[in-house]
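Checklist before submission:
- one chain only
- standard amino acids only
- sequence pasted in full

Submission:
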Amino acid sequence: MRKQHYQNHKRFVFLYHGLTLLAILALSIGSVVNLLSTAKENLYSASLLVLVAFILMSLFVFVRRFPLRVQDRTIRAEENLRHFILTGKPLDSQLTSDQIIALRFAGDEEFAGLAKRAVDEALTNDEIKRAIRNWRPDYSRA
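Returned file contents:
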């Protein structure tokens, strides 16, 4: 695997994020245009195409969102344990999930300090990632 860092840590799967989204959008637009311009005797089948497009768009969104929510909860638990091992204290309850998810990329030597700084300065997840000096890669993110 190539070395992970701030500039390349986001995952983009062209077939899913690009082609599949484009195909579903084309189907959605085409099915609505077809519904609006169809003859009365084809109204039922045109309506079904709009329904199929809506179902596919919903699947596209939620098939990705649900596993990421579970993974986010796992990351929160893992990072809370890591903070406890390093400092003897749990993570500050003021940290948001987005901040904790960003903190997972920090190496052990800077993790606790950056977590405190994230609370004190209300850092965004992007600011946290940019502040990391020793990047700890996450190659298994869904």
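Reviewer check: The chain has one domain: 11-131.
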